[in-house]
C-alpha cells in the first residue's frame, strides 16, 4: 500500500483494538524486495500443483514479479487444466513498495502501536536483512 493507505489502515486497526490488543502483519522482506529494483521482470516460478476442489482437474499455480520504479507487482497465475486441453487462468496480483523496515516501524508507532517483535519467518526466527519475510507483531498502547 502507498503511505497514505498504510496510515489509514493502521489508524483503523488501532481504533478496533482493545487496549493492549495485538496486531500482526506479514510482508515480503523490504530489504530483499529492493534487490528487484534493477530488474524489469522475473522468470515465472511454478509454486504448486493441486486438485481443483470442484472439478478434480489439476491446477498449476505460478508467480512472476514485475518491477516498477517504486515497487514490485507480484502476480499469481492459477491455471485450471481442462480435459479438452484448454486452460482457464485466474490471475491475482498485489503491489509491494520499496519501503524500508524503519518506515514501517515508525508508522506503527505513529498509529499508537508498539512493535513487540520482528520475525523473519513463521517459525519466529528473528528478522534479518536476508529473511524471506518481515513479520511485525505490535500491541496497542495504553492511553
Helices and strands, with pairings:
Elements: H1 3-16, E1 22-28, H2 30-33, E2 45-51, E3 58-67, E4 71-81, E5 87-97, H3 101-110, E6 113-119, E7 133-140
Antiparallel strand pairs: 1-7, 2-3, 3-4, 4-5, 6-7
Textual characterization of the structure:
The chain is α+β, with helices and mostly antiparallel strands. It has one domain. 20% of the residues lie in helices and 43% in strands. The chain contains 3 helices and 7 strands. Strands 2-3-4-5 form a 4-stranded antiparallel beta sheet, with no helix packed on it. Strands 1-7-6 form a 3-stranded antiparallel beta sheet. Strand 2 and strand 3 form a beta hairpin. It is globular, with a radius of gyration of 18 Å. It starts with a helix and ends with a strand.
Strand order of the main beta sheet, please? 2-3-4-5
Q: Terminal Cα separation, in Å? A: 28 Å
Number of domains: 1
Structural class label: alpha+beta
Principal-axes shape call: globular
Sketch the topology as an H/E string, one letter per element: HEHEEEEHEE
> Any idea what the radius of gyration is?
18 Å
Indicate the mean pLDDT: 92
Main sheet overview:
4 strands, antiparallel
Strand content range: 35-45%
Number of helical regions: 3
**Which residue ranges are poorly predicted, with pLDDT under 50 across at least 5 consecutive positions?**
none
Instruction: Determine the fraction of residues in helical runs and give it as a percent range.
Output: 10-25%
**Total strand segments:** 7
Amino acid at each position: 500500500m502507498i503511505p497514505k493507505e498504510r496510515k489509514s489502515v493502521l489508524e483503523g486497526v488501532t481504533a478496533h483494538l482493545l487496549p493492549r490488543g495485538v496486531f500482526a502483519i506479514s510482508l515480503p522482506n523490504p530489504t530483499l524486495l529492493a534487490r528487484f529494483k534493477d530488474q524489469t521482470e522475473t522468470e515465472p516460478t511454478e509454486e504448486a500443483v493441486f486438485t481443483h476442489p470442484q472439478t478434480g482437474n489439476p491446477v498449476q499455480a505460478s508467480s512472476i514479479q514485475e518491477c516498477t520504479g517504486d515497487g514490485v507487482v507480484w502476480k499469481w497465475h492459477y491455471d485450471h487444466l481442462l480435459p479438452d486441453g484448454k486452460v482457464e487462468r485466474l490471475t491475482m496480483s498485489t503491489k509491494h513498495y520499496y519501503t524500508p523496515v524503519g518506515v514501517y516501524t515508525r508508522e506503527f508507532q505513529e498509529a499508537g502501536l508498539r512493535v513487540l517483535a520482528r520475525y523473519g519467518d513463521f517459525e519466529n526466527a528473528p528478522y534479518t536483512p536476508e529473511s524471506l519475510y518481515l513479520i511485525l507483531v505490535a500491541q496497542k498502547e495504553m492511553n
